Fold:
Amino acid sequence: MAAELHVALVAADREVWSGEATLVVARTTSGDIGVMPGHQPLLGVLESGPVTIRTSDGGTVVAAVHGGFISFADDKLSLLAEIAELSDEIDVQRAERELERAKAEGDASAERRADVRLRAASAR
Amino acid sequence: MGAQLRVYKRRIRSVTATKKITKAMEMIAASRVVKAQRKVAASTPYATELTRAVTAVGTGSNTKHPLTTQADTVTRSAVLLLTSDRGLAGAFNSNAIKQAEQLTERLEREGKEVVVYIVGRRGVAHYNFRERTIAESWSGFTDEPSYADAKKVAAPLIEAIETETADGGVDELHIVYTEFVSMMTQTAVGAQLLPLRLDEVADKTTAKDEILPLYDFEPSAEDVLDALLPRYVESRIYNALLQSAASKHAATRRAMKSATDNAGELINTLSRLANAARQAEITQEISEIVGGASALADATAGSDK
Structure:
């Protein structure tokens, strides 16, 4: 059995990451979900949160995903997000500044975005 | 220098300056087309995946959604027209506007009220000049649209379509944009965006006899569809914006290229005329000198006698 799934993490304006993986963990509106090869075809709505991809060469890719979808069929998994950033693309200082600003202004969605970024960045 | 020659010289100078400008604009547009094309290509994976997902939900469940069901009687349609902010692009804007007007006319013939939304200053100016009402308009990003711009445009449209017709909502959404076929060909097209014709979408994506798997929906088919469709509309509008931008740059490039060519031709013609004028001047001077000399010679020859 092919114990691999092909993952494509796609943002609205670019393809962020694609490759082979053994496990993908993402947060849907009804809770965290882990997808391994051979999973049932799935289509779900993502919450903004970090997505963890365990690649087949043993590495881990973490990305901050803000809203979007997960769709899985035939060992092909696509993560569609309006905005998606890999953890090493995230500017931690900027995210921290954003978080403080959002907290001060009481902007809940901006606060959540910054928080997700920071969590993804700290997981790398 | 004769007056005639001076006039020619001055015109050559001014045409040369214009040629330099159009040449520069041509080159800028050429580089922007490439950039815009790259953006179109970069946005394609998202659009394809999204279309696949929409098809999957639409065909895999019997969910009814305002964005996919055709109203029994369509009383009001929205038309979104994409133009550019700036001109100097040949027939680019007039073609798009013409297409929009044909579509409007067709819809009105079918007894529908048409609400117009416009992107780009050119389209707005066209409608304002004719004192037609515009429901909403956006401008300032047509050269390099971002996804956030597409969201901004899509938001009121989605809201309008979700509103009941009696409360001023619309039943249909059409989009008029310029499709980027190739560097040389761009065609203005009008397409129905909503309500979604799922069979049509399915035809496009599953042309290779692909059977879509039975998906498990998380949390539920309705919720997925609810979240998917606005994204689908945004992505379609984003794609249309990008294609329009690429088409606009290609049209500008072509218009500026022919302007540069024409300027070159004009300079050639003017140089010939200037040369002829100079020659005529020289010839005249020679004949004046020869004439004067022979008159003098005649005079002295006469006095000698």
